[in-house]
TrEMBL record:
Gene Ontology cellular component terms for the protein in this record: mitochondrial inner membrane
Cellular localization per UniProt: Mitochondrion inner membrane
Protein name, entry field: NADH-ubiquinone oxidoreductase chain 5
Residue ranges annotated for the NADH dehydrogenase subunit 5 C-terminal domain, each copy included: 149-253
E.C. numbers: 7.1.1.2
Lineage: Eukaryota, Metazoa, Ecdysozoa, Arthropoda, Crustacea
Keyword set, alphabetical order: Electron transport, Membrane, Mitochondrion, Mitochondrion inner membrane, NAD, Respiratory chain, Translocase, Transmembrane, Transmembrane helix, Transport, Ubiquinone
Residue ranges of the TM segments: 6-25, 37-54, 60-79, 91-117, 129-151, 177-198, 204-228
Taxonomic source organism: Daphnia pulicaria
GO molecular function, one term: NADH dehydrogenase (ubiquinone) activity
EC class name: translocase
Length: 254
């Protein structure tokens, strides 16, 4: 279990770091899936099998929503996956923007969305098992990385300056595209509490000191602020070697 613990933590860390330097929309979402799979394996290595399954279910709902939203954006932005050619898409795709941000916030573990119920429980129980300061610190860093690449994706796609790609806003009038997105948005709002009531008939009792109890929320908040302040920097040029190393997934395919 210690080996699985180490491999899962490193998987979460690697996929988080790589996603921060990635520009392909689908790759970022795929890397975030890899990160969450690491989270599930981390949960299994602690012996929390039911929690891992619970996280699998909630994660499936909002990740499906993320991929569908990405599909609508790619279709509407002239079939490009490069988020550098996006920018200001919230004007063209208001509904998809809301739904995708909902899925992103759920992924980050923002309180009372689907991802929060499973992710926060895994984090708090891991703190209670106290595997040592290194494992806990790495876990919180991986949590922060999730927030970092999610905020970066949202900023570059919806908020930041227009990247010069073509965009057509007729996608949102196609109900076969937008219908499933709206339905899945609803599930990523309510599936967390509903599935937790179904899976865990008795509440989980967790005893933690205040700083660990607030740790997850603190790291989410701080990394949100850090990424918002970093958005002005085109750090891909300043971090050339790191960016290349990360962009090629730490040379693991080779």
């Amino acid at each position: 279990s210690a080996l699985l613990l180490f491999i899962s933590i490193m998987t979460m860390f690697m996929s988080g770091v790589v996603a921060i330097f990635e520009y392909d929309l689908k790759k970022i979402i795929a890397l975030s899936t890899l990160s969450q799979l690491g989270m599930m394996m981390f949960s299994i290595s602690l012996g929390l099998y039911e929690l891992a399954f619970f996280h699998l279910l909630t994660h499936a709902l909002f990740k499906a929503l993320l991929f569908l939203c990405a599909g609508v954006l790619i279709h509407g932005a002239g079939n490009t996956q490069d988020i550098r050619s996006f920018g200001g898409l919230s004007l063209n795709f208001p509904l998809v923007t809301v739904c995708m941000n909902l899925a992103n916030l759920s992924l980050c573990g923002v309180p009372f969305l689907a991802g929060f119920y499973s992710k926060d429980l895994i984090v708090e129980l891991a703190c209670q098992y106290s595997w040592g300061i290194f494992i806990l610190l790495m876990m919180f860093i991986c949590l922060s990385l999730t927030v970092l690449y999610s905020v970066r994706l949202t900023y570059l796609s919806f908020v930041g300056p227009y990247g010069g790609g073509t965009s057509i806003s007729v996608c949102e009038s196609d109900y076969s595209l937008v219908g499933p997105v709206v339905i899945l948005s609803f599930t990523s709002l309510v599936s967390g509490p509903i599935l937790s009531w179904l899976n865990f008939p008795a509440p989980v009792l967790i005893f933690l000191p205040a700083f660990l109890k607030w740790g997850a929320l603190f790291f989410v908040g701080v990394s949100l602020l850090v990424m918002l302040s970093l958005q002005g920097l085109t750090y891909s040029y300043k971090w050339g070697a790191v960016s290349k190393f990360s962009g090629l997934m730490w040379f693991l395919p080779w």
